[in-house]
Amino acid sequence: MRTQATSPSPVRPGLAEGHALVLAGIVLSALNLRTAVTSITPLLDELGRVFDFGATMAGVLGMLPSAAFAVFGVTTPAIAHRIGLERAALASMLLAALGLVLRSLAGGTGGLLFGSIVALAGMGMGNVVLPPLVKRYFADRVGVLSTLYITVLQLGTILPALVAVPVAEAVGWRISMGAWALVAVAAALPWIGVLWIERRRESDLARCHDAAVAAGDEAPELAAPAPRGRAWRTSLGWGMALMFGMTSLATYSMFTWLPKILTEAGATPAFGGTMLALYSALGLAGALTIPALAVRVRNPFPLVLACAACHFAGFAGLLWAPMAAPLLWVPLVGLGPSTFPLGLTLINLRTRTPAGSASLSGFMQGVGYAIACLGPLLFGVLHEATHGWAWPFAMLCASVVVMAVGGWQACKPRVLEDVW
Predict the structure, then answer these.
(1) How far is CA 87 from CA 91, 101, 116, 178, 384, in A?
(2) DSSP letter assigned to residue 221
(3) How far apart are CA 287 and CA 296, in angstroms?
């Protein structure tokens, strides 16, 4: 059963007929939230040869997604509060497109880093604004819409990993990485349509921003909470952040290093990319099932324990016998991050208002991704220092224990607005 009553969220005047565009914008934006991550990791060996870098730089590239998501988890609420959720969604997709193009044109590691940062900045903004947009426009269908956009997000994680190596072999790594900019441009188009309808219907938006924010907040969901209303002062907020952060730490470590683990064990780069796509695809299974389960149970902590068990079993297989049964180990570690869609669903299940949803979303993703950015880098440093995988996997197992502790707090049946 749900743990709070759902109340209608405020929808912009004159935009009722724009719901189809908003839905298209949410779905297409979700498709773009991970393309910068998994379009590069299957190509790290080739890029390392081209630009002459090793495991540490690969780890730096691997930590950029979570670092960018952390920064923009903190800053996006203020940006969207000022310019509006819809404009922030548009800006996120334009930044993603620009960064993907810049990265594909890189002449060295500096260009790869800069292009990745720009693209991931846009994707980090999208991470934060999508849940409040769901709450605003589809408050009576949170479970269904959460399942939809998390499912599409997973598809946007799977496809780049699956095609990265074959496309690079056919037409080069630049096109393999840069072609995803076209998908980001496509995602910007619905938001342009939404803003056009808004401008046509509301002539008073021509007023200055100060008057607009004072009289009719551009994004009331992302307004600063009252002084006592801070997610960081609650065990619920910290539980969400730890569960989300440790899940992301393990996930981005696998995104970065899974192909390398398998190729060092004797697999081909194409096989490594295929297994990365399979790993991402198992996230789709979680996206399709976890939100629907979470909205029907009072305390979904048993789901967290099941995810932890999958992680431990998969890590053990990849460490001790990676090529003995990769089609077992990879799905197990792929099911482990199902706490990711659980966390995104709990944002709305553990809040009563769009403001609470945005506050919890920003804190969870800001702190969570700050924690997660250490994963790929530390994994690479430990591998380079020990010339093996035992210590990197020990680090991941420790992170899963912390994830379970955070999940215990996050899953308790309570609402943020009642505890802050």
Answers:
(1) 6, 21, 22, 24, 43
(2) G
(3) 15
Per DSSP, 2 falls in state -
> How would you class 204 by CB atoms within 10 Å of its CB: exposed for 0-12, middle for 13-18, buried for 19 or more?
exposed
Residues 6+ apart with CB under 8 A from 300: 293, 294, 342, 346, 411
Identify the pLDDT of residue 353: 80
Distances (CA, A) of 312 to 154, 213, 302, 381, 399: 22, 49, 16, 21, 11
Q: pTM of this prediction?
A: 0.75
In one-letter notation, the amino acid at residue 87 is R
pLDDT tens-digit series, residues 356-411? 877 887 788 878 888 988 899 899 899 989 999 999 999 999 999 999 999 999 99
Residues in the chain: 420
User: Residue holding tokens 């194409």?
Assistant: 270
Chain mean pLDDT for the chain: 86
Calpha distance 47→347 (Å, rounded): 37
Cβ count near 105 (within 10 Å): 12
Per-residue pLDDT at 242: 96
Counting beta carbons within 10 angstroms of the beta carbon of residue 6, is it exposed (0 to 12), middle (13 to 18) or buried (19 or more)? middle
Give the closest residue to 238 by CA, choosing from 129, 370, 398. 370
pLDDT tier, 225 (very low <50, low <70, confident <90, very high otherwise)? very low
Q: All domains of the chain, ordered by start, with CATH? A: 18-419 (1.20.1250.20)
Please state, in angstroms and as integers, the Cα–Cα distance from residue 199 to each residue in 60, 192, 207, 357, following that order. Answer: 42, 10, 11, 27
Structure tokens at 45: 């060996």
Backbone angles phi, psi at 320, to 5 degrees: -95, -25
- For residue 100, give the nearest of 162, 48, 175, 27 by alpha carbon: 175
Write out the H or E segment, with its range, that includes residue 51.
helix 44-51
Give the pLDDT score at 295: 86
